[in-house]
Design brief:
alpha+beta; two-stranded antiparallel ribbon
Length: 218
Amino acid sequence: MSSPRTSSPVIEEQVASPDPDEAQQVRHVISYHGTLRLAPCEVHELRCISTFSGTQERCENGVFDVEEGKWEEVDIPYAPGRQGQQILNLTGGRMWAWVVNDFTFLRRWWKQQCVDHFESGAPDHVTFELIQFHPLLHDDYILTERPEGYERAPVGQDIVIHDGPTGDKALCATPGCWHSTVGKQPEGWRCWECERVEKRRARVHRRWGQTASGSSAW
């Protein structure tokens, strides 16, 4: 007679913290003094979960603010067994995470709310999407290289668009934006942040246009 099986701690954790319905292929880890949570997407795409009162739909705003965190290497939590040893061998026990160490900022991040909805009392439109990071469940999202394009605005420095005839930097085409990238880009290139803002603006305009056309119908 075989002895009853005990459930795996990893399986129990997977049941307790299931992946969000709209989890993307690329996902980033957010860290606060050793507490690690896995976002459903890249950190700059993390979206507010509050209900927007104007449409009663999910808020279109993002949570991300480049001034509130930075990329740092953090310790990967201990993982037992052969898979845990493989992770240790491949990474040296370290990975890149978006670190928010200021508790004032963290309170908003940990509620997954935009600046407008933080402490507003607005109800959540979807379930909280930041789940506890577990190396055995989420090893596909361990970053061994620092993501690019998250530099803060330069203070008192001129942005170099070209270093001469063979310059290798391009400046975002959006007026007033300071973002640049390495390598030649097509004319009119825009950085990821400006692209995100433009997509959000287009979604809002499209939604309000549909609402207006529907209300004007006889």
